[in-house]
Design brief:
The protein has 380 residues and is of the alpha/beta class. Helix content is 47%, strand content 14%. Bound molecules: nicotinamide-adenine-dinucleotide and magnesium ion.
């Protein structure tokens, strides 16, 4: 088993990855985060051999970190790219947002194994990421629980045997609400996810179902299945993590407690499995239920399908507009229902093109952010 580079080490995925690494006795070759937070400094002390990447730091922070960490510390966005190319490493990308894209591409270009939690890499830059995989010969393994589930259901199966992929969704905290009720929900309610404990952006995305829309696009790229053969089902208990239906009518599902340490660990050890910490699963007394998503109330789901089908720059615009709108919602500058409106308007306003490089994707991202911010100004 190789050594690990943990990008986004201070986040929800990063913390759980380090827990898995410690339990399995894996070497942590590098850690990185957005800023020089106390949390990152504690990690730098806990992993004294690890290189430390800081994406953004003031000159005073640079000076003081260089004093304490000497040549172990690297700064700037290039630092993430450099760490992602650490020879022979498994790169766990737990950065949030499109900021994770350059490191994903660099890891695959360098022929590394990329355990990808940063779904925005595939949403915004799917073709660019897959091209890097082909070019560099790296291995792309999903961390997202639904995609880890599908990946595991597909072991030993032929691509032609697959009829469709079925992504399960908890439905989030607003399952069953009407459009009118969504107008008045608060930030605290949106952050109170019923089954998963995650960072703020993905938690809000789970409440709008944009997270599921991103996962549909992610699945399209990871498994090479067209959008007509990717379905979404609401499953409030989050025990069935996703399913594959085969041409003979069989379905395979992946079940377990909702605990991200399981798919994180599998992405690191696959195809082998290592012991985990969960107690044996007790099926008796469990009720698993499934229902159709309410596409009229949770409009982000179909906005995502439409952007995925348009391809080219549309999914990058979808992601950028959503990042901006979710941030504005978290800062209480717009209401919850405005997130879908801003994303839809931004999708309509940014000229369609076909990004072929990381820079192209980031150009689209910048333009879409500016347009989305304009719409937010108008919505205030
Ligand atoms: P989080 O907000 O808890 O953590 C984000 C991490 O990224 C932090 O370490 C932060 O310092 C770092 N970061 C943010 N901006 C950065 C930048 N510009 N440059 C470098 N680092 C930066 O987020 P999270 O919940 O851990 O999610 C991380 C990714 O994993 C997201 O793409 C999310 O969609 C995906 N994911 C998360 C979960 C989960 O359970 N948390 C599940 C599936 C997928
Ligand atoms: Mg998921």
């Amino acid at each position: 088993m190789s050594r690990l580079v943990v990008l986004g080490a201070t986040g929800s995925i990063g913390r759980q990855t380090l827990e898995v690494a410690d339990r399995l006795g894996l070497e942590v070759a590098a850690i990185a985060a957005a800023s020089a937070s106390d949390h990152l400094l504690e990690l730098a002390a806990a992993y004294p051999e690890a290189r430390v990447g800081v994406a953004s730091a003031t000159s005073a922070e640079r000076e003081s970190l260089t004093e304490t960490l000497a040549e172990r510390v690297l700064f700037g966005r290039e630092a993430l790219v450099e760490l992602a190319t650490t020879p022979g490493a498994t790169i766990v990308n737990g950065i949030v947002g499109v900021a994770g894209l350059p490191a994903s591409v660099a890891a695959l270009d360098a022929g590394n194994r990329l355990a990808l939690a940063n779904k925005e890499s595939l949403v915004a830059g799917g073709e660019v990421v897959l091209a890097a995989c082909d070019r560099g010969g790296g291995t792309l393994v999903p961390v997202d629980s639904e995609h880890s589930a599908i990946h595991q259901c597909l072991v030993g199966e032929e691509a032609e045997s697959v009829r469709r992929l079925i992504l399960s969704a908890s439905g989030g905290p607003f399952l069953g609400r009407t459009s009118a009720e969504l107008e008045t929900v608060t930030v605290d309610e949106a952050l109170d996810h019923p089954t998963w404990n995650m960072g703020p952006r993905i938690t809000v995305d789970s409440a709008t179902l944009m997270n599921k829309a991103f996962e549909v696009i992610e699945a399209h790229h990871l498994f090479g299945v067209d959008y007509d053969r990717i379905d979404v089902v609401i499953h409030p208990q989050s025990i069935v993590h996703s399913l594959v239906e085969f041409v003979d009518g069989s379905l395979k599902a992946h079940l377990g407690e909702p605990d991200m340490r399981v798919p994180i660990q599998y992405a690191i050890t696959e195809p082998a499995r290592a012991p985990g910490t969960l107690a044996p699963f007790d099926l008796a007394g469990r009720t698993l239920s499934f229902e159709e998503p309410d596409r009229d109330v949770f409009r982000c789901l179909d906005l995502g399908y439409a952007a995925g089908r348009s391809g080219g720059s549309a999914p990058a615009v979808l992601n950028a507009a959503d990042e901006v709108a979710v941030q504005a919602f978290l800062e209480r500058r717009i209401g919850f229902a405005s997130i879908a409106v801003i994303v839809e308007r931004t999708l309509g306003d940014v000229e369609h093109r076909t990004p072929t490089s990381v820079e192209d994707v980031l150009d689209v991202d910048r333009e879409a952010r500016a347009v989305a911010n304009g719409h937010i100004g108008g919505a205030c």
